[in-house]
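Subgroup meeting minutes
Present: P.N., E.W., G.H.
Scribe: E.W.

1. P.N. recapped why we're keeping a running log of single-chain structure predictions: easier to compare across weeks, and new members can see raw inputs and outputs side by side.
2. G.H. added today's entry (287 aa).
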Amino acid sequence: MFVITGATGQLGSQIVDRLLERVPADTVGVSVRDVTKAAGLAARGVRVRAGDFTEPTTLQHAFEGAEKVLVVSAAIRGSAAITANRAAIDAAHAAGATRVLYTSHQAAARDSLFPAQLTHAETEEYLAGLGVPFTALRNGFYASTLSFAIGAALDTGQLVAPADGPVSWTAHADLAEAAAIALAEDGALDGVTAPLTAPEMLDLEAVAGVLSAITGRTIRRVVVDDDQWRAAAVARGMPAPAADFTLGMYRAARRGEFAVTDPTLEALIGHRPTSARTVLTAIAAQA
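Output recorded in log:
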């Protein structure tokens, strides 16, 4: 049985959909914190069980009979995320899974300036030391983050953010397809993958240019000091720890941590990944 965690989230739900295109529903199980949110999956024949990384005892039942487990990284920050990810990996191992997969990040590294990458790097190391076949999916930077990065630019005409750098913005849909293939096809991806990225990189100056072309309005990129941005974000209601976390993203970007593209994703899914322009067009249409 294939077991997927976080199956009602933005990435996990799409992974389940893509996997169901490839394998029978009665071979798919999901581990979710709230089973009521997965009623639609249950109606499709998917096994739905409650499981919470922060309550490891729940995972034994959720992972029962699993041959392959895909651990979608915990949506929390700091050391608690590492603890949660390890709990899920341990539970998959205990359930007898012959392969454990984990949604990592293209820039996972112990010396990253973006705190999320430290979590991914440590989780990857733990997974590699487990002694079972594994796949660490080094997902490209989620293109949906552009909605946050743009902020109020479509209303104000100014894209205000700290200094940044090129990012290979990659769509959830393409990464979900890659994960489903890695689950369904033995040997498709093994170990720590190459960066699973779209083939183009854009910094926020380029994003502003694309938005200008899409909307027919001039969107100007405005670079502000880190401290100035942080103070404004906190004043708007962002918790200080969240502002510090986000600043790490900008600092890592301008150091070039996300300035990488790789053909692996396109080769795996068999078509050109979704462009950042397509994502930005959808964001502009919803604004």
